[in-house]
Known about the structure:
Blueprint: E1 12-18, H1 24-32, E2 50-56, E3 60-66, H2 74-88, E4 93-99, H3 106-117, E5 122-127, E6 145-147, H4 156-165, E7 186-190, H5 204-215, E8 219-223, H6 228-234, E9 241-244, H7 249-255, E10 262-264, H8 265-273, H9 276-283, E11 294-299, H10 310-323, E12 328-333, E13 346-349, H11 357-369, E14 374-376, H12 377-384, H13 388-396
InterPro entries: FeFe-hyd_GTPase_HydF, GTP-bd, HydF_dimer, HydF_tetramer, P-loop_NTPase, Small_GTP-bd
GO molecular function, one term: GTP binding
Keywords: GTP-binding, Nucleotide-binding
Amino acid sequence: MGMNQTPSGERLHIGFFGKRNAGKSSIVNKVTGQDLAIVSEVKGTTTDPVYKSMELLPLGPVVIIDTPGLDDEGELGLLRVGKTRQVINKTDIAVVVADGREGAGKEENDLIEILKKKKIPYILVYNKKDLCPSGETTKKDGENILWVSAATGEGIYELKEAIGRLRPDDNDGRRLLADLIQPSDTVVLVVPIDKAAPKGRLILPQQQAIRDILDRGAVSVVCQTEELKNVLSMLKTPPRLVVTDSQVFKKVDEITPPEIAMTSFSVLFARYKGNLWQAAEGAKALENIQDGDKILVSEGCTHHRQCGDIGTCKLPAMIRKYTGKEPEFVFTSGTEFPEDLSGFAMVIHCGGCMLTEREMKYRLATAADQNIPMTNYGIIIAYMNGILERSLKPLTQ
Length: 397
């Protein structure tokens, strides 16, 4: 995979925020060295967040997000400001741009309060330095304030360096599964190729699992469900771990002898991305579901829904069968995730492989703050099949 192929979920997300006409988009263009955002003298030109994946030194692969103005007016404006707030939850580093001639007002300060509350590192940038009296531009309230001029380019290099210093430490030791195995172990990955599988390639969790196994100096054997029995009998020593796609959990559980550790891609991802134990606990909420209860089924990516899609078809059918009830299912995908979850009995999320860790944690926190049980596809399927305990076991030993 080349640089440009770094998955969006693994890139550093840098959000640019500010009032209309503070020169936010011009600063984005100066920082990135290319015309990425729409720039004009008309207030409020950026109508939707603009996402752009790129390579930015000294940071490496990043996603730059240019957002609508914080002070947007009218109905459409309110909708855009809502989108801006959603962007905050995807942001690893925030750049708040204010017009140096006006200083930071209520909108900027409100935003900074939200950033502090969410523990998102930020820089306050005063733009239009070239239009301000020189005495004005020496006022500094702290570390994270910079004066720049998008028009002359002054301060842009310093801004990039400052963003670089705020980079969160990547090396926090989190691994998808490398810490569960030893070098030269064998791991069997069970990957069903059905009509939902992309043509000619593997999906991201499968690619990442293979990569993690290789990095550990271990061996991955990839097969479909039908070949699993044969593969297990061929291997001289039993595999250290069998990892399966959740949709074939039950079959794989039956084929894999009890002494061989078994888990699923979604259980590994729940551990890697957010809060495995919150999800395991959340699955138990199924026991209390009644007719008419609303269940939110939320998907992180916006891929084209196949018929028989797991989230919209298979999962609801399994839940109706398991509970014997008729709950109401509400579906969201991509960046849509309601801030108010109070009407829902529970939330079932996908594995979140296309979301950043910050976005996934934000969603988990939103549910926890409102005491709404939240789980994910794989964990609830394992729970309904009575094998959640088995799939959690390799992670607790």
